Amino acid sequence: MKYTMNSEDRKWLEQTYEKLVVKLSAQCDRLGTMMPYVPENGVYQDMGAVHLEAWTNGFYSGILWQMFHAEGEEKYAVNAEGIEKRLDAALEAFENLDHDVGFQWLHTSVANYRLTGNVKSRSRGLHAAGILAGRFHIEGDYIQAWNSREKQGIAIIDCLMNLPLLHWAYEETGYISYRQIAEKHTDMALKYIIRPDGSCNHMVEFNPVTGEYLNNPGGQGYGSGSSWSRGQAWAIYGMALAYRYLKKPEYLEAAKSVAHYFLANVALNDYVPLIDFRASEKPVYLDTTAGVCAACGLLEIAEFAGEYEKSLYISSAVKCIKAMDPYCVWNPETDSILSHGSARYDREYDREVPIIYGDYFLTEGILRLMEKAFLIW
Fold this sequence. Notes:
Helix content: 40-55%
Distance between the termini: 16 Å
Shape: globular
Radius of gyration: 19 Å
């Protein structure tokens, strides 16, 4: 899709892309097959060495595959394939995996297969899809988020971003159950997670035996009934992707509703998201990762919006990404780009810090605007 921008925004985009290439090229040379999460004093540690099953371990590979597609440099593919092979041990110990297998294997094996046709990568992706499908609860029509008997009834908004793994598996195999599970979970989210005003719960809890809705615990935001901004971003992008694959109009309308709610709130803070739009006024905590993820979702909506709507979503995505400029570190000698990302409201060590998925969505957003991205979802 071609994105129409004014000359000032186009100049900013081209300059930012040049800085992105320099930064990520140097980082690729330095990191090898590392799976980073949060840097310490500008230096990444290898999360894969201490927690191979961590849900974030695919995002750096996603950055590498996006850059391989955009720039064609083999070194990006080599390191991405190295990460993918390291994750084989996590697939073998599959009991430790949860609903986040989409984040892990869409950005590794499925990306590899889509770009290179690697049949081993296809097999890995289908293995992960089987794990995700196996978490589906028939009575409640939801995919269980986390492990343990006590958490069997929990579903979360994040899972919308894992469902493209099931849509891909359906496209590859023709097995309709993959698509049916994805559709059932999306319908559940539409009913119980996304509110009429466009805000979202993070978590919902069901009776895992009967499927009865019980409540909506607070999750990673401020509390029950609040509005965790990255959850809003997951909903924008996740519902837009659901529309891509299933073409149900209510999914696109939901994506738009959440997008409008999100934009109304970030406009109050110069397009830099708070961790939670319904938190107490103090302390003020930011989450830049929500802004760049939402921007990618806005660009996804623009793919399907009507002629007179597209410019709203494109220009809003540009504003969300440009608002990140003060929080970007482009020095190629240090690790990570986007600072002030926050995993959750109530945890200090990964609150207002650089986080790898912030860099992924920043990269995807810039590449989409440059018309150099490929659909990793």
